[in-house]
Amino acid sequence: MNSCREESKTIALDSIDDAKTISFYESDIQADPVVGWLVCISGSSFGHDFRLHQGRNSIGRSLTNEVVVRSDEKVSRDNHAALVYDYRANKFYLVPENSIDIQLNGTVITNPVEIKDNDRIALGSTELVFVPFCRESFKWNKDAESHNRECNM
Q: Please, which pLDDT band fits residue 19 given cuts at 50, 70 and 90?
């Protein structure tokens, strides 16, 4: 669960200033480590990159998705597709959801399919390139629930 608390501290900024009270937020939000990226190479989100995290990453136009492809009317608002990272198997999958307009490397997909480094995903007028961080040479040892993470390299 994410939570933040506000604290105040009195500090002297330098010898000329009087002491000042400054508010700041201390967060106990745990990091959700990045497992890969999608990079938009064509379409309305050209040049943008999207971080991927363990588990399901929904793709669509709505801000409720983890990967938000704005201004592409051919992409569903919610759950056009999902990109799933399975940390146990250290594999990524592209899963069609509310659309049949999804291609992987130029081939229409209708069922979940494993994806690899530099695969091209086309949805609507948008083309994305998949760039994994977790791969054969690296993966997080601990599951995404753990705060202290180790890595294998």
A: low
